Each structure stands twice: as structure tokens, then as C-alpha cells.
Amino acid sequence: MKLLAISPHLDDAAFSAGGLLASRVDQGWDVTVATCFTGNVAQPTGFALACQLDKGLGAEIDYMALRRDEDLVACQALGTRAIHLPFLEAPHRGYTSAKMLFAERLPDDRIVDKVSMALGEVLAAERPNLVLGPLCLGNHVDHHVVLDAIRRSCADHAVLLWEDWPYADRENRVAAMPAVIEHLTPETRVRRIAACAAYGSQLGFQFGGFKAMADRTEQIAEERFYEMSKD
Which member of 104, 131, 195, 209 has the lowest number of beta carbons within 10 Å of its beta carbon? Predict the structure, then answer.
């Protein structure tokens, strides 16, 4: 059996579905995490550079190379393979403020067409039995792009959507009934924490540090997944 998790950013799959990914690996599944927005900009400026500096990383750091390396460590902790697609995150596509990241997609942002085509190629190569993707809690524009691309490219596949974490902590519970509930075991929780910890560049910004992330994860009993609507 093969599972393909389609992650917007380098951390979303581990943050949101690390327990299920680890569990399926333990059950003998071949599990791959394909991350869409991992492309480099040689000399970021403006808001894109600010996103890097805000995390304590100097302008001389190759931010996305660092993040791709973090992702490889996270996937090793989970036992999954990694695919890094070369598309640029929203701050490099004309989204110039934090507010814009959680607003409507820019009219000239046609990246979903390219992401859909690339996912079609990944699906043809991987031939997964199950696809995972983001439910888009938090309404990040990149998450919505990926979900739209999944709708276009995965019509013939079984698709489940994860509750985007840590956005899920700030949102009300989803009204729909989950199609799958993954109960975390002590082992899968440890591996989820290890995978999340690999993204050291993000922990302070997202959680307030490693301890806060680990303490919060210790309180999580289950991960919930929902069927993808066709509209």
C-alpha cells in the first residue's frame, strides 16, 4: 500500500499528520511526503526577507536549503520519503504582508495550474492508494492553492484532508464528521514530536520553542481526517 501526503510547506504534513504517517509506515505502507513550495530565491527582499529575519535567520542564510534539510530529517524520523517540488511560497509571488497570506488569492497568481500539472506527474509516478492534503484551517493562501491543485489532479484517488496544525488550535472544531481518526500511541507521538522538532527554524515562530511544541503535542490524543468535497 502506498500513501502520498501532499504538503504545502516544509513542515505542514509532519505538524498535522505526523502520527498517522508514522503509523502507516509501521504497518508496512510506502509513505511519501511531497512538498509543493520549496523553491529558492537567491536574494529575497521585502516581506519575503522579513519572514526569514523574523525567525532569527540572517539574510546570508539560504533559507529554503535549510528548510529542505530540516524536512529530510523530519521524514527520517517518520520513516517516509521526501519529494521537494520547486514552486515559490506566497511571499515570493507578490503577497507582501502577513495579512495578504490569509486573504483572497491575487488575480494574477496562476501557480495552481503549475502545481496541478506537477502533482499529476507525481501521482503517475507514485500511484498511491491514498492521498492526504490540507483542509485549509487558517486559510493560508498556499494551503488553498494546494487543495485546489489536489482537487484538479486527484479526482480518481481516495483523498483525506488533515486539520492544519497549529492553525487547528486556533479554530473551532470542524463541523463535518471525520472519515478517519488516528489515535496517537506513545510511539507515534514520540515520532511526531521528533519530526516536528526537526523544523528548528519554525519552532519559535509557530509555537514559542521546542518545549511548547512538545508539551502541546503531549496533549493531542488523535489526528482527524476528512473526505475531500468535490466542489
Answer: 104
Contact between 57 and 107 under an 8 Å Cβ cutoff? The reply is no
Predicted TM-score (pTM) of this structure: 0.96
Contact at 8 Å (CB) between 99 and 123? Answer: no
The fraction of the chain above a pLDDT of 70, given in percent, is 98
CATH number assigned to the domain comprising residue 54: 3.40.50.10320
Backbone angles phi, psi at 137, to 5 degrees: -60, 135
Candidates 133, 152, 14; CA nearest to 82 is 14
Rounded CA-CA distance 33/35 in Å is: 6
Given strand 222-227, what is the order of strands in its sheet? 81-84, 30-35, 2-7, 130-134, 159-162, 222-227, 180-183
CB 136 within 8 A of CB 163: no
Answer whether 84's CB lies under 8 Å from 32's CB: no
What backbone phi and psi angles, to 5 degrees, belong to 140?
-70, 135
Domain count, the chain: 1
Q: Which domain holds residue 39?
A: 2-227
Cβ-based neighbour number of residue 118 at 10 Å: 18
